[in-house]
């Protein structure tokens, strides 16, 4: 299938951004300039530019035009010992975890089954956000049964939860299973991510287990699609 003109133009412009032809903060060429360069209609260029804004490559300033945006926060999905703040430091960014809310709720059907606990057993429901250079990029809702890690405190939750589980409660996470999907921000998600309702977001559902297969934590995380990208690393053993 032949690629549409606006898709071709968008890919070419993304490549220019990634190779620093257009650098962060540079004012982007106008619609008229791009129409002349690619010999296409204003409508075609406008579609390409709108998608670049939606995908976080450009930002628009009313009355001034479009500018190249800061690079997206890059996080590693595959196994790594680098925590959130360390990953951002490597990219020259300041990372911060903020506790938005913590409450104790009774276990019901889904959580009772997931954690293999009794009806009404207490579960800690934790809402946190993660920011890069003071811009919120992630909103997370996590669940940890009280009897696994009783009394999780603010200072614990504004750092690495897994490190806290290991050092304070003697629980080591042995395995995580993650499901990645695309979702649209609802009112609650948009509030915490500080974005528009309906904005595309990455959604990651995580189940964390100890070495015996006991589920210690379950979380749902939402990432701004215009602020976040993911890197997956795989290591392969050479055939003997």
TrEMBL record:
Q: Which UniProt keywords apply?
A: DNA-binding, Transcription, Transcription regulation
Query: In which domain of life is the source organism classified?
Result: Bacteria
PROSITE patterns, alphabetically? HTH_GNTR
Please give the Gene3D superfamilies that the UniProt record associates with this protein: Chorismate lyase-like, Winged helix-like DNA-binding domain superfamily/Winged helix DNA-binding domain
Q: Name one GO biological process term.
A: negative regulation of DNA-templated transcription
Q: Which GO terms describe its molecular function?
A: DNA binding; DNA-binding transcription factor activity
Indicate the segments forming the HTH gntR-type domain, all copies: 3-71
Name the InterPro entries for this protein.
Bact_HTH_transcr_reg, Chorismate_lyase_/UTRA_dom_sf, Tscrpt_reg_HTH_GntR, UTRA, WH-like_DNA-bd_sf, WH_DNA-bd_sf
Return the protein name: GntR family transcriptional regulator
């Amino acid at each position: 299938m032949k690629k549409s003109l606006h898709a071709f133009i968008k890919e070419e412009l993304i490549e220019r951004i990634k190779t620093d032809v257009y650098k962060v903060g540079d004012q982007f060429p106008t619609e008229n300039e791009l129409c002349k360069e690619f010999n296409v209609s204003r409508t075609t260029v406008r579609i390409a530019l709108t998608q670049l804004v939606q995908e976080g490559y450009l930002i628009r300033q009313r009355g001034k035009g479009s500018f190249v945006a800061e690079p997206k926060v890059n996080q590693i999905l595959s196994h790594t010992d680098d925590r959130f703040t360390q990953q951002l430091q490597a990219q020259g960014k300041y990372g911060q975890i903020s506790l938005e809310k913590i409450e104790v709720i009774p276990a019901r059907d889904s959580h009772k089954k997931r954690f293999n606990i009794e009806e009404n057993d207490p579960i800690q429901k934790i809402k946190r956000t993660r920011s890069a250079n003071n811009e919120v990029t992630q909103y997370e809702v996590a669940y940890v049964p009280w009897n696994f890690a009783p009394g999780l405190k603010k200072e614990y939750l504004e750092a690495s939860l897994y490190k806290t589980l290991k050092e304070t409660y003697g629980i080591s996470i042995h395995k995580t299973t993650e499901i990645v999907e695309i979702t649209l921000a609802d009112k609650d998600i948009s509030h915490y991510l500080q974005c528009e309702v309906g904005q595309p977001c990455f959604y990651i559902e995580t189940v964390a287990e100890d070495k015996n297969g006991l589920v210690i934590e379950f979380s749902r995380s939402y990432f701004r699609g215009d602020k976040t990208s993911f890197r997956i690393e795989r290591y392969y053993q050479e055939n003997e």
